[in-house]
């Protein structure tokens, strides 16, 4: 391992739940199967592996590509995409079903379940999630610098200043829109609305490290509020007069295609699912 590149970074996965009927299945797979599988694979080079459950989707949250299950966070010491790490004594259990539950494959895949189409017992989902499928949402896996790059509002805020309703947002500028043009829109037209809004207490931003896995997103931001009402007043009502850009993919702000060019989740500061520290197995209720 001495020749591995020491490259501290953070990653975020936006996990949706495509249908409430899928939630019990998805939660069972995440905690019963996926957590121990993952820890067994990357414990030597990951320092944090946590699930932040999403708060209930706020009104009109779907137009912001709201991930209804959770935000998954990793802190990496080396790149997980190094091909030398692909040799595994025991493969992960990642069936295609999981991608249907998360909205990354159409539900029709489950309905037409045959051996030549789906292997529900293997690791086929890991490879399949890297391919965008028509009629479904891409799997959004953003790698970021370990530390935030832009501190835009609220520097000095502490945990004692109150509860935080943290809106974590990944955005990717549409095809044909340069990053420079997108940044100008984001930082000069959009964020000033949040900067002056008293309901918004904190704004942070970082570039996505697109070179790691070719992620379609360009930026990840966090905008904090006290609660859902503060978010709605600013993100929905406060942006009604924002000029629609020529490249808009939907009629209203954020003007980006939900789940494709924008994904987001509102989460708390703290989670009990800090898995490297708190996971002790899938122990069911009596």
TrEMBL record:
Keywords: Hydrolase
Every Chalcone isomerase N-terminal domain range: 6-106
Name of the protein described by the UniProt record: Acetyl-CoA hydrolase
GO molecular function, one term: hydrolase activity
Pfam families in alphabetical order: Chalcone_N
């Amino acid at each position: 391992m001495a020749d591995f590149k020491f490259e501290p970074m953070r990653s975020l996965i936006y996990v949706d739940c495509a249908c409430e009927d899928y939630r019990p299945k998805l939660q069972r797979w995440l905690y019963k199967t996926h957590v121990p599988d993952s820890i067994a694979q990357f414990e030597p080079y990951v320092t944090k592996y946590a699930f932040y459950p999403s708060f209930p989707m706020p009104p009109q949250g779907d137009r912001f590509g709201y991930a209804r299950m959770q935000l998954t966070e990793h802190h990496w010491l080396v790149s997980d995409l190094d091909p030398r790490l692909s040799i595994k004594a025991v493969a992960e259990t990642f069936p295609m079903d999981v991608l249907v539950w998360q909205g990354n494959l159409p539900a029709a895949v489950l309905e037409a379940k045959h051996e030549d189409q789906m292997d529900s017992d293997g690791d086929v989902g890991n490879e399949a999630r890297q391919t965008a499928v028509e009629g479904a949402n891409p799997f959004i896996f953003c790698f970021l610098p370990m530390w935030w790059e832009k501190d835009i509002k609220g520097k000095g805020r502490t945990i004692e200043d109150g509860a935080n309703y943290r809106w974590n947002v990944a955005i990717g500028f549409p095809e044909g829109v340069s990053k420079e043009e997108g940044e100008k829109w984001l930082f000069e037209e959009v964020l000033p609305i949040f900067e002056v809004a008293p309901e918004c207490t904190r704004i942070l931003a970082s570039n996505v490290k697109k070179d790691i896995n070719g992620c379609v997103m360009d930026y990840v931001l966090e905008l904090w509020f006290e609660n859902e009402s503060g978010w709605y007043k600013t993100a929905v009502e406060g942006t009604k007069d924002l000029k629609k850009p020529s490249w808009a993919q939907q009629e209203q702000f954020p003007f980006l295609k939900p789940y494709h060019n924008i994904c987001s989740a509102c989460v708390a500061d703290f989670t009990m699912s800090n898995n490297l520290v708190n996971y002790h197995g899938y122990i069911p209720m009596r």
